[in-house]
Specification:
- InterPro entries: CxC2_KDZ-assoc, KDZ.
- This protein is α+β, with helices and mostly antiparallel strands.
- Helices cover 29% and strands 18% of the residues.
- The chain folds into 2 domains: 2-107, no CATH class; 124-200, no CATH class.
- It has helices spanning 26-31, 49-62, 66-77, 89-107, 193-199, and strands spanning 2-6, 9-13, 35-37, 45-48, 150-154, 165-173, 185-188.
- The chain is globular, with a radius of gyration of 22 Å.
- The chain starts with a strand and ends with a helix.
- Bound molecules: zinc ion (2 copies).
- One zinc ion (ZN) binds next to loops.
Length: 200
């Protein structure tokens, strides 16, 4: 039995694993029909690729937490008795991170078993609209007109006494608002924009 989590709810499915001598691992057998297993040796829960994309967009656009998203799926599965539907919040938290990491690696050239491992900042997207020599600038570009215009952003300032960092700051391009890789810094107690100028 495998609990399958899809955009329309959580369903139990009987799974007959391929037992042939050349059979791939159970995890690979799940990946083939676009199911992402929550564990690797004896998978009992799998998420459809669709629901993982769905959750990512929900989390970004609607600020949906994993717990709320799972509650919604339980409601969709059984509106009268949502508590009898298996709760897969913990698994969603773990799998959605793995899913997003794999996607970033694929997008930024680290997919398909390439030997190189990503270094700091390699999995961050540069602003696609900002000028980058060699990528979206003509060979005879004028360095002055293409100068980056960054501004400091103050993301989440928490004034709590028991925290080491009281917030985070980052630099974003002033025109498009995209964060600049390598510029996210923690605000330590007391310090504020001094750290951001270090980031710039
Ligand atoms: Zn077989
Ligand atoms: Zn930009």
């Amino acid at each position: 039995m495998v609990n399958t989590v899809h955009t329309t709810g959580v369903f139990k499915h009987k799974v007959r694993w391929c037992q042939c001598q050349s059979a791939p691992k159970k995890t690979v057998q799940l990946f083939q029909p676009q199911l992402f297993p929550a564990s690797h040796l004896q998978p009992e829960t799998a998420f459809t690729f669709d629901v993982l994309d769905h959750f990512h967009i929900d989390a970004m656009e609607c600020k949906t937490a994993a717990a709320s998203f799972i509650k919604k799926l339980c409601r969709l599965t059984n509106n009268a008795f949502p508590h009898v539907v298996p709760n897969r919040e913990r698994e969603l938290c773990q799998v959605s991170r793995q899913w997003h990491d794999l996607q970033s690696r694929k997008w930024l050239g680290f997919g398909h078993d390439v030997e190189k491992t990503p270094q700091n900042g390699n999995l961050a997207h540069y602003c696609p609209a900002c000028p980058q020599p060699g990528i979206n600038l003509p060979d005879d570009w004028n360095s002055k007109s293409a100068y980056h215009n960054y501004r400091a952003m103050n993301l989440a300032n928490l004034d709590r006494k028991n925290r080491d960092a009281t917030g985070i700051g980052a630099c974003a391009c002033a025109r498009h608002g995209c964060f600049v890789p390598h510029t996210v810094v923690d605000f330590q107690k007391g310090g504020r924009y001094a750290f951001v100028s270090k980031g710039v």
